[in-house]
Structure formats: structure tokens, C-alpha cells
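testing teh design pipeline on a random one, pls ignore if ur not involved
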């Protein structure tokens, strides 16, 4: 990374540039050693194909443990532990992890948002030093990080922002995929809720009726209530409070005056009769 330091940059930003250059150098060192290992994997060498299969984290851990305690001979570890390229990859990834932590702390102390450097630091942490990688995966991750390093090297702050540390943390949260997804879902649900409140209730009833398969009375006869024992042409009480609206009705259900008909029936004592009233829609 070629970071040309302008005289108008403050000491904090200069420190960021220097640390980013340190990370860039480590990335290039890892890339060169990893390319040698990739070549051996492509050549079909069994030992290095096993390295590719097991990935770097496990192999580096086993090599470190064997250096502390040699133990019994091991055909695989005895070969890879002596390889300088593998040691470079293992050690430099460790040093890069420490370097990127320093870069993050220097970015947090800035009085501006240096977005390209934030992206560079985030890519190293999430793609190079954080996850376990095979030689091929590490090569792709390093290429991505070096591309962001070049973007950061060509970036110059145009002005000083008055943003605080809280503002920068808020910006980092907004750039997080999970947080961004939660925010977008909340916005969409809020918009749907507001739209739903504006829909007329009659429209909602019509829409619900389209999907409601529950049988509803729409025409015919229904028991409406009891007759006055002394006069079978009068209701014993006002039934309007006990009537309910049918599912397919467009208005309140009405009932007509009590009349004698073939649908009326009388109890054995003659004191109570039930009348079937025809449902009529408004």
C-alpha cells in the first residue's frame, strides 16, 4: 500500500496509514507463502493436499503443539513442520490479527470517519484472520483485502467531520448485514401496518369473506325467538339484541312480524311457541 501522507493530515490519521501499511505488508507476505503451498497442492503432493483438506487453523495448531512436545514420529507433521512457507502463513496470520486490532483502535480514536480503512480492517478480520481457511480460500480472501487496501491508499479526507465516537459506532452498526436486515424488516412492517389502518373496514370484510370457508346463513328460515303465550302473533320480547349478523350479509339481519305459519310450533302446554322468521338482507 502506498500511502502518501499530506502535511494537512493530523497525527491520528497518519498513525492509521502507517498501521494499514503494516497490515498490507503482512498480507503480501502471507500471499506469497500461500501461493507456494497452492502450487504443491495443484501438483498432487499428498501431504499438501491433506493441508488443503484440513485447513490452516488445525494444521498450524498441530505444528505449534509438536514444537513444544515432539513426541512420536509422524509422517505428516514431520514434513509440514519443517516447511518455511507453512510457518510463514501460520505466524503471519497471527501477527496480522494483532496488527488489525491496533488498526481498529487507531480508527476509533480518529475525529473523522475513514470509511475505506474501516472496510479494509473489517475484511481482514472477517475473511483472513477470523475464519479457518484452506489455501485456495485464503488466496481469494487476501486478494479481496489487498483490493480494499489500494482503495484506502488512494483515499484522502476532504474535511474533518464533527462526528463523535458514538456516531462512528452507529455507522458501523448500520453497515452490519444483520442489523441492516432487522432495520429494513421493521420499516416494511411499519409501512404495512400504516397501510392496513387506512383500509376501509368494508373492504377488509370483503377480503376476509373471499377466503372464509365457514358456512354462513344467507337466506332461508331461522328460529328467531319465542312468542307471547297469550298472543301468538306477538314476540314475547324484543329480539333485536339477540340477533347476529350472518357472514355473507351486507347489512343488519332483519326479522318480520310474528305470523302463524306452517313453520310455527307449539309446546304441549300451549304456553310457548317457536316461530321461524325469514332472514331478509338490507
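output:
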Amino acid at each position: 500500500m502506498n500511502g502518501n501522507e499530506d502535511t494537512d493530515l493530523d497525527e491520528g490519521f497518519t498513525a492509521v496509514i502507517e498501521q494499514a501499511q503494516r497490515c498490507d505488508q503482512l498480507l503480501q507476505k502471507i500471499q506469497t507463502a500461500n501461493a507456494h503451498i497452492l502450487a504443491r497442492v495443484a501438483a498432487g503432493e499428498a501431504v499438501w493436499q491433506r493441508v488443503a483438506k484440513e485447513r490452516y487453523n488445525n494444521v498450524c495448531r498441530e505444528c505449534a503443539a509438536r514444537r513444544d512436545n515432539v513426541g512420536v514420529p509422524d509422517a505428516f507433521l514431520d514434513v509440514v513442520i519443517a516447511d518455511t512457507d507453512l510457518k510463514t502463513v501460520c505466524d503471519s496470520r497471527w501477527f496480522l490479527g494483532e496488527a488489525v486490532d491496533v488498526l481498529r483502535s487507531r480508527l476509533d480514536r480518529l475525529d473523522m470517519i475513514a470509511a475505506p480503512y474501516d472496510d479494509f480492517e473489517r475484511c481482514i478480520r472477517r475473511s483472513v484472520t477470523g475464519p479457518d481457511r484452506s489455501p485456495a480460500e485464503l488466496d481469494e480472501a487476501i486478494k479481496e483485502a489487498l483490493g480494499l487496501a489500494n482503495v484506502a491508499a488512494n483515499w484522502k479526507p476532504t474535511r474533518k467531520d464533527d462526528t463523535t465516537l458514538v456516531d462512528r459506532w452507529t455507522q458501523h452498526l448500520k453497515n452490519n448485514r444483520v442489523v441492516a436486515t432487522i432495520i429494513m424488516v421493521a420499516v416494511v412492517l411499519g409501512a404495512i401496518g400504516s397501510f392496513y389502518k387506512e383500509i376501509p373496514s368494508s373492504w377488509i370484510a370483503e377480503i376476509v369473506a373471499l377466503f372464509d370457508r365457514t358456512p354462513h346463513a344467507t337466506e332461508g328460515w331461522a328460529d328467531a325467538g319465542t312468542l307471547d303465550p297469550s298472543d301468538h302473533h306477538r314476540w314475547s320480547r324484543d329480539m333485536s339484541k339477540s340477533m347476529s349478523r350472518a357472514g355473507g350479509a351486507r347489512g343488519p339481519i332483519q326479522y318480520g312480524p310474528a305470523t302463524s305459519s306452517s313453520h310455527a310450533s307449539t309446546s304441549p302446554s300451549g304456553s310457548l311457541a317457536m316461530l321461524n322468521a325469514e332472514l331478509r338482507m338490507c
